[in-house]
Amino acid sequence: TAVGAVAVLLAVRRRAWAGATAVVVVAADLFWFGHGHNPAIRADLAYPETARLTELRKAAGDGRVLVLDWGMPPNLGTYVGLDDVVGYDAIGRRRLELLMSFAGPFRPGPLHFRLGNFDRYESPVLDVLGVRAVAASKAREVRSLRALPTSKGFLYENPRALPRVFVPRDVVVA
């Protein structure tokens, strides 16, 4: 049906009604495709809210999170409303790996997903990326992070995290 809408647009490029017709055709196509959609289970059952997720979301506020020790599978943060700094992109993560490598070398581990091995949790790189909360399965020695009470595992707040958008006061050319 979408192909039909494109054909209508190409056939009558100069007529004003062609655009409206294409919009109606595409809307009808989407309605027909989604009509009767029945997901296998409810979203709240697939991704249940846990005390740990609630604590992490509260600690992060409007910032990003870093979950160490492979504690959160890639892209799970997207489903539960967390902005995971590591995330997952099967194609284009080289630039993020390069940026995060300024914090120091990655720990040895699976090469298919080097960002999962990132453990420089007190690096200024994370401050610039706006990481406000760091979660881990084991206690960490921290100097710049503040430990928070948690129901399970270990949770730290990064008071040095910068906002997502900011203008630097000074720029030093190296």
Note down, in words, how this protein is organized.
The chain has 174 residues and is α+β, with helices and mostly antiparallel strands. The chain has seven helices and four strands. The protein has a four-stranded mixed beta sheet. It is extended and about 65 Å long. The model has no long low-confidence stretch (mean pLDDT 82).
Q: Look at the helices and sheets and give the structural class.
A: alpha+beta
Uncertain regions spanning at least 5 consecutive residues = none
Query: Taking Cα atoms only, what radius of gyration do you get, to the nearest Å?
Result: 23 Å
Strand order of the largest sheet: 1-2-4-3
Helix content: 25-40%
Look at the structure and give the mean pLDDT. 82
Helix count, DSSP H or I runs of 4 or more residues:
7
Strand % is 5-15%
Biggest β-sheet strands, sense, barrel: 4 strands, mixed
Sum up the overall morphology in one term.
Answer: extended
The H-and-E topology, N to C, reads as HHHHEHHHEEE
Distance between the termini: 57 Å
Number of strands: 4
